[in-house]
Design brief:
The complex is a heterodimer. Chain A is mainly β. Chain A is 0% helix and 46% strand. In chain B, a hairpin with a 3-residue loop joins β1 and β2. The chains are: A mainly beta, B mainly beta.
Chain lengths: 121, 145
């Protein structure tokens, strides 16, 4: 598995994308701003109960460019969210357009209420 | 700045703190402010031939971005729609960090920037503006005799 934080031992700074997270009865919608990330430079994965959003800025800059004012200081975005177990990471749908990622994470489809067994000793 | 009474995301709060740094710490202070907390974030740089401005402005309709160049001052303005639903009995807004509303950012161009040769493009949510420098001001070596 790739170590997306860069070389081991370096603590490369990452940009934290701004997000909106909205929940309704059928699941969660997450919108994240990742300007400068092309579709193939976006990496979205679920590990255990963590949703990980990563992207690499791919700006085309002219040769010899020297920045004099920099508000976006690094090239990587990364943000991690912990999912709860009523959400279904297998059915996450995603759209990515003009630097805006839109994720839909539905609730698990089991309609039946969970039965809680009570053991009487 | 709006503070959440009940922070839900520690990292987001930390970032908000970071954005709220006093602007006086910015050694490159401009009369129009550093704009660190504003949308869109700007990177500005140059080459000997051109001035390059990158505005990190995701989720815009490029046809509706207003770009104005007036007496060496470049203004980037527009509006980003608010697509956050209202909190009600059925929906809960857990995190609402993304910018929405009207924005305006201003960049002072150097004196040799040529207002007649400006190109702008919008790709992956980044607006890139390239302003050529006037040829006369390309660096020249001056011989000392």
């Amino acid at each position: 598995m790739n170590n997306t934080q860069g070389e081991r031992g370096t603590d490369e700074a990452v940009l934290m994308p701004a997000v909106d997270v909205v929940e309704d009865a059928s699941g969660i919608s997450l919108v994240a701003d990742l300007p400068g990330v092309a579709k193939d430079a976006l990496r979205l994965h679920v590990e255990a109960d963590q949703l990980i959003i990563e992207g690499v800025l791919g700006l085309e800059v002219p040769d010899g460019l020297q920045l004099t004012h920099q508000e976006v200081p690094t090239m990587r975005y990364r943000r991690v969210f912990t999912l709860s177990n009523e959400l279904d990471p297998e059915r996450v749908s995603a759209a990515f357009e003009q630097g805006v990622l839109r994720l839909r994470i539905p609730r698990v489809q089991q309609a039946q209420p969970r039965r809680i067994r009570i053991d009487v000793g | 700045m709006v503070w959440n009474v009940y922070p839900r995301d520690l990292m987001a709060e930390l970032e908000r703190l970071q954005r709220g740094y006093p602007q006086s710490l910015d050694h490159n202070a401009s009369i129009r402010g550093s704009g660190r907390s504003r949308y869109p974030a700007l990177n500005v740089g140059g080459t000997p031939e051109s001035v390059e401005i990158y505005a990190f402005a995701p989720g815009l309709d490029p046809a509706r971005i207003e770009l104005l160049l007036d007496r060496g001052v470049l203004t980037i303005a527009g509006e980003r729609p608010d697509d956050l639903p209202r909190d009600d009995a059925r929906t809960a807004v857990h995190i609402g960090e993304r910018f929405a509303g009207r924005f305006r950012r201003v960049v002072n161009l150097p004196e040799d920037a040529d207002p007649e040769s400006v190109a702008a493009s919008y790709r992956d949510g980044v607006l890139h503006i390239s302003v050529q420098r006037r040829v006369a001001s390309a660096p020249r070596r001056i011989n000392v005799t």
